[in-house]
Write a structure and sequence with these properties.
Layout lengths: L7 E8 L3 H19 L4 E8 L5 E8 L2 H12 L2 H6 L4 E6 L6
Antiparallel strand pairs: 1-3, 1-4, 2-3
């Protein structure tokens, strides 16, 4: 099975623990959205506050595993990740199986 073929989807939540966390997300999210949406292979990338102000819904779709892995590496070196790394995340990553 080759997970490099076909789209990779991440969905889940960013769960803030305080008003300070919400402020960090709001401060760093616009640039994070802009940079991610400009990445090669990014089909869609959305982060939105839910009815619970502390919880943010995260939906990402990348053209393949290579594009997704690039995004993960870039993000880990970003101001966004530095600022929000202590905020818990609950994500599920799915990639279709490729059959020959």
């Amino acid at each position: 099975m080759d997970y490099r073929l076909g789209p990779v989807r991440l969905s889940g939540f960013l769960c803030c623990g305080s008003i300070k966390d919400i402020e960090l997300v709001k401060q760093y999210l616009p640039d994070h959205l802009r940079l991610t949406r400009a990445e090669p292979g990014c089909i869609s990338f959305n982060v939105s506050q839910t009815d619970d102000a502390l919880v943010w819904r995260v939906e990402e779709l990348f053209v393949d595993r290579v594009a997704f892995d690039f995004h993960q590496q870039r993000t880990r070196a970003s101001k966004w990740f530095s600022a929000t790394s202590t905020i818990p995340r609950d994500y599920n990553i799915t990639a279709p199986e490729h059959s020959s």
